[in-house]
Amino acid sequence: MRLQFLVDGVLTGAMIGLGAIGVTLTYSILRFANFAQGEFIAWGAYFALLVATALGWLAGGAATPIGPFSFGWGLILALFAAMPMTGALALGLDWALFARLREKASSITIVIASFGASMALRSLLEFLFTSRPAYFTRELQIAIRLGWGVRATPDQLALVGLTAILVLALHVLLSRTQIGRSMRAVSENPALARVAGVDVDQVVRVTWLLGGALACASGVMVGLVVQIRPFMGFDLLLPLFAAAILGGIGSVPGALVGGLIVGVAEAAAAATVGAQWRAAVAFVLLIAMLLVRPTGLFGARE
């Protein structure tokens, strides 16, 4: 079997992994599964599209691609603008819905509320932009030979590099900063962290901002290599949760590794048994792993 599926799988896994980090952060800090995470991916892509379009209009024309890439500086600036915008959307959803339920509703109620919020966000997105797909760029690229029969476009290599940078930055934030230590304390024991003087409300706000920003990056990646659609986040929702559970719910490195495993498994399935079976093969792998290790790869045993 040709190794080309590895490139496709790693890229898909990087997109899934970034979104799964938001799922696992939300679960570890707020103790519920957020089904609206997929919609943050779609909204982030559309935010970036709006900013990139506005920048192109102000510049008086289409953006000139950077070197071998299909995108210009406008999309890079749009990404940095859309990430806090998506974080603000996540924070606004928490203020309007989840914060009002946390103190007086059960976890299952909040999960159902998140499912309803995801449907509302998706419908609003489709109402505003229609279901017609959109694109960041229509530039064609020539794949680069990487050896062993493997090819990758410059855009694909750049997006894998972007994932590495974002994950490294998140690791530094969680391990070397005060807010990162506070987040880990709240993840371990919220009540004890509050008694110890940790500002739990600030930790919750930062969690939503980080989850939304990473979802935006994932959405821009999907939009650049595939297309932008209102249902793009919904299509990724089950792989997001599969990656988070496979890696160990609550583990940031586990979410990324789980995303890579799911992505490579789906790509291998598409290359061998057919694209229609890719999701099924990935979930069979997930079930097999959880039968061996129910806590996931990096999950801590209770």
Overall pLDDT: 89
| Poorly predicted residue ranges | none
Radius of gyration: 19 Å
What percentage of amino acids are in beta strands? under 5%
Distance between the termini: 41 Å
Give the overall shape.
globular
Order of the strands making up the biggest sheet? 1-2
Profile the largest sheet: 2 strands, antiparallel
Tell me the structural class: mainly alpha
Order of H and E elements: HHHHEEHHHHHHH
| Tally of strands | 2
Q: How helix-rich are the residues, as a percent range?
A: over 70%
Overview of the structural elements:
This protein has 302 residues and is mainly α. The chain has a domain at 27-234. It contains 11 helices and 2 strands. It has helices spanning 4-30, 37-59, 73-102, 107-129, 154-176, 178-188, 190-195, 200-225, 232-247, 252-272, 278-292, and strands spanning 144-147, 150-152. It has a two-stranded antiparallel sheet. The radius of gyration is 19 Å and the shape is globular. The termini are far apart.
